[in-house]
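Pasting as-is:
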Amino acid sequence: MLTRLLFTPADARDLVLPLIARFVFAATLLVYYWHAALTKLDGGPVSLSLGAYAQVFPRAFEAVGYDASQLGGFHYLVALAGTYAEFVLPLLLVIGLIARPAAIAMIGFIVIQSLTDLYGHGGIAHTETLGAWFDRLPDGVILDQRAFWVLALTLIAVKGAGALSVDQVLARRAAGAGRLQPA
C-alpha cells in the first residue's frame, strides 16, 4: 500500500493529498472557527457582540472604556468582515470551492489572528504562547501549532482542492463542455 502510494502518478497524489489536508482542516479547525465566529454575533447577522471588538481590537476597545459605540465604522466593518471570514473561508475549504484563493485568504487570516494574539492580547510577552521552533516543546500556540495550520493550507493553495471537491466537479464539467464544442 505504501509502495503504491509512493509510486503512483503525481496527478493521483495531487488529488489525494489536498483531500487529506481538507479533511484535517475540517476535523481540527472548522468547528474552532465557526464557534469563534458565533461568539462575535449578538442576535442578528449584522449585530456584533462586545466580544467581537474585544477579540479583534482589544487595545482600541479597552481605550474607549469597552464602549463599542465609541469605535468607528472602520472597526465595525473589520470586525464584521472577520466574523464572516470565520464562517465562509472554512466552509469553502471543506467543500473545496475556490479552494486555492480560500486557502490563501485563510493563511492571511491566520497571520492577522496571530499578530492580534501576540500584540493586541499581549501573547508576545508569554513564551508559552509564542512558542519556539527547534526546541523540545511542540505546543507553542503561535509558532508551533499555527505553522501546521499554514502547512495544510499551503498544500491546498499550491495543489488545489483535490478529490471530492466542488472545484474538481466544476473542472470536469468545464473539460467535458470543451470537448463537446464543434471545431
